[in-house]
Amino acid sequence: MRYSVAMTEEIETAMRKHLIRDDGQEDVLIASYRLSTGAERTTALIRSVIFPDEHDRHVHGNASFTSRYVLRASSEAQTLGDGVAVLHSHPGALGWQGLSRMDWETESEYERVARRITKMPLLGMTLAGRDTSWSARFWFDKSTPTWAESVRAVSPKLAVTWNDELRQIPRVTRSQQRTVSSWGERTQASIARLRVLIVGSGSVGLDVAQRLAATGLATVGVMDYDAVEAVNLDRMIGATRLDAALGRPKVDVAARLMKSSATAEPFEVLRHEVSITDPVGVSTALDYDVIFSCVDRPWPRAVLNAIAYSDLIPVIDGGIALDTFPDGRMRNGIWRAHTLVPGSPCMACLGQLVVGDIPLDKEGLLDDPEYILGANRDAPSRQNVAALSASVSGALLAQFVSLTAHPGGRGTPAPLRYILSTHTLEHSIASSGQYCPYETRTAIGDARTPIAEHRDDWRAIVHERTTSKAQIRLRALAAVENFLQRRISRIR
After folding, report:
1. Confidence of residue 61 (pLDDT cuts 50, 70, 90)
2. In the prediction, which pLDDT does 379 show?
3. Among 145, 154, 258, 477, which residue carries the largest CB count within 10 Å?
4. Domain ranges in the chain?
5. Residue of 359, 348, 328, 339 lying closest to 440 (CA atoms)
6. Alpha carbon distance 309, 329 (integer Å)
7. CATH class of 2-162
């Protein structure tokens, strides 16, 4: 199990302003957190700051808590259903911080108090004052802390502090020289360590996956339970007729193409033949730092929309819609891109997700001709063009660069929409709804509303594919392909 910490920009700013003092002395603070439990990673989501009263701590060069403060904060956290995080600052320090003997003894002692009251582990955090880097550890018992691999401040400018021992800096390869020259080695070191998931590996997702691999990311996951068909070949650039003939899983095609274009050494591609609308898919998604939403159905988009806020994982979403005249000529094309982070409007507030369509999608009614006719609805648009889907993937990747590299010191923009017929780029003026059911549940983690459901339909599709006779031929051909790929890699 891996561990991490995440918080909103609002929470991070409040804690940093308290801990970094004008007089240069150390200070202490307590916050509450809630857990977000993935398949392989558990994240503590900082939810609220419990500021000290006048006599709650001592500032004397090395600041210290009072027992009164710890007891009060633990009781407040317990009332919220949260755990306790104790924080202190190292004003003159840089980067990820270890624990001094005094800090170790302090946190070890308060672990027992916090656990007795909240029934949750104590979380310890340190802020390095010179570069505002955070570090964190979980106290599951009194003897030894378990270190987190990263601390993420989630906003339109994603900021990550990495534990170099647990998530080592990938070596810059010769193939990455021009990439690194665009934003520097420090930014590359952070971007390369992000675990990024692409949900949906169709025309847009497949292109995004390959370009992330070429950018030097060390770990990229792709989630899709569908297989390649002949109808996909005019958009899935890199998929072959053999892939379609064999019904090859889309995640396998994406993995093959990512390995071919990857510049990181080593490079890890993770294949997830599951549905994001299933609890298994949600649990998998919670292991990642950034998610690309390359799906076009209301239900999976609603699940990803919720994760962006409840679990503080930025979701980069977009899509394309093409419109034709009755005689078949193109009327217009619109593509859009936006990044979902706390403080930015969600898909529902943007009008890109109709909440009432979610139950219809669950029941399959949005593809039912009789229902569509009876409800006087338009059938789902199926048009797509490879030449235009590249524009969507480009728009999503530009959002990713803005989120992680902050060109010009700026983060992700307001949601964007490009209108092809007039060649107009629009910035959305949409704002968050006052009672938005997604944004009001920010950082609730495992207490999230269960939108995902266990379904057997996608499992049946995967089972049928993996047990068919074609799968035996696929394995033999895949072995040949893997051999050739290894030979090509040696040549490179």
Report:
1. confident
2. 61
3. 154
4. 2-162, 174-458, 462-491
5. 348
6. 40
7. alpha beta
Nearest to 122 by CA among 134, 138, 109: 138
- pLDDT digit string, tens, across residues 172-200: 999 999 999 999 999 999 999 999 999 99
How far the first Cα of the chain sits from its last, in Å, is 35
Of 276, 104, 115, 287, the C-alpha closest to 205 is 276
The CATH fold of domain 174-458: Rossmann fold (3.40.50)
Does the pLDDT of residue 479 top 90, yes or no? no
Same fold, 2-162 and 174-458: no
pTM: predicted TM-score of the whole model, two decimal places: 0.93
Is 136 in contact with 92 (CB distance < 8 Å)? no
Residue 67, exposed/middle/buried by CB under 10 A (0-12, 13-18, 19+)?
Answer: exposed
> What pLDDT is attached to residue 82?
97
